[in-house]
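Dear colleague,

Thank you for sharing your sequence with our group. We've completed the structure prediction you requested, and as agreed, I am returning the results in plain text so they can be pasted directly into your records. Please verify that the sequence below matches your submission; if there's any discrepancy, let me know and we will rerun it promptly.
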Amino acid sequence: MSCPAGYSAISNTLSATAAIAETLQPGDQYCFYGENIVWSEHHLKPSQLAPFRVIGDDLSDNALDILKIKREENAYDALIEYISKPEEEQASQAPRLLYDQMMRVPEWVDWDQICRGQQVHW
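Please find the predicted structure tokens below.
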């Protein structure tokens, strides 16, 4: 797929793409992985997005620190295994707090709307 005149991410690497994105001005055309983009004043440059990449979820981060999950491990299975241990064998309550939050249904859930959706799809 070819892109019209303008910038093109031919290397398809994030570092090259980020360097190009830093230079774009509103109205510039850019082809990113085959998608044509016209840069606008609403687009944020990578340097403006960088601070958002370090914002995390403290509850999850604390649980993951305790669980010490490896890349190839299933995080949910590790969480269940940990909270299934007797409490005296658990070094921290962080995994339990994460599990409790994951299992809690938010108050804004509309069960009638979910039921209507199920009727449409089933």
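Summary note from our side: The chain has two domains: 7-51, 56-106.

Kind regards,
the structure core
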